[in-house]
Each structure stands twice: as structure tokens, then as C-alpha cells.
User: What shape does this take?
Amino acid sequence: MSAFLNVKEIKEKVSLLGLLKNLGFTPQKISGGEHFFLSMLREEYTASLCINNKLGVWFDYAGPGVSGIKSGSIIDFGLAYWYASTFPEVLRKIVEYAQLDLSRPQNSVVLRKRKHPLEKNREYQVMSVSESIGNEAIEAYLKARGIADVAEGYLYELYYAVVGNRNTGKNHFASAWPNENGGWEVRNRYFKGCLGHKGMTFLQG
Assistant: This one.
């Protein structure tokens, strides 16, 4: 499995219906191209979770479960179903259960990140992760670096808090991408670093 999981590639290659089938769920009824399931996000007796496989979206008419998510893409479903997992873990589980081959091609580019000695004793808490970049400061940073047009599907908008230093309790934001060890490589105008464990990132060539 690839250490770098491209959200755009997962959305294009993984079927919601196929994923649910591999998870052991079958639709209770099919109507007009929409498949209705007993929601696996809660205990219920009337099929409320609807999947439009052509559009690649789902909606739970009974409302959100414990995750607070009630609709969206296959990524949103993964975040709702494996709500206790981190974002990189959810991506890996989707790929695993969908039996999608994202193994690194021979011409892929390997990026190895250098450890920063000042990060040794820091702890981080990821507050939220978004697939799309909507923060104006992050957008400006990506445009200044000349990578705004190619960032979609590769970079995420990440909010986090730093614990264990004088900035304790202060929230930060950055563009980010996951590495092979479940950590995040983060970049913004003022900071370059890693949240969690260091690791390699594989970019498909």
C-alpha cells in the first residue's frame, strides 16, 4: 500500500457500494438509482442511509451519528464509520477494505523529511482536517509558492494545537499531508515541521 494516500485518487477509484459490500452490508431497497441501507452508524430498523453511487455521495436521513457527520463523499463516510480513527488511518482503512492497489510505482518520487531537533519534546493535538483549502492565509501561501493549482487532492487544511511549550493552548493552521507513519508534514508562511512521527511520503509519478 502506498504511504501517500491521495484523496482525489481514492474518490475516483473506490465505489461507496463496493466499500459497503466489502464491509458486509447489503442494501434493503433500491429506488431510482439510490441504494438504501440500515444505517451502520447507529442501531435502527428502517433503512435511512442512502447512497447514490453514480454521484459518489451518501446521506443519512436519520441524522448524524456519534461522529456528527450525516452526508458527503466516501471520505466523509469513512470518517463517520471509523470516527475514533485519525484521518490518515481512515484513508488506509478505505484502501484496505476496498482492496485498492495504491502501491508505489517505480517512477514515484520519494521525499524524506529531515528531523528538526526543536520538535523532539513537543506534543500536538490535531483539531480538524479538511480536504479542501478554504483558509485565505493558506491559499496565499500556496499561491506564493506557486503550487496552488496542483495542491488539490494532495494537500489538506489542518488545524492543530501545540502542547508542552510557551504556546500551549494556541491553535495553529497549515497546509499538510500525511506520511507513512500516521504523522503530518505541515507548512505555512512561518513554520515547517512534522506533527507526530516522522516518515516518508510517496508521490505518484
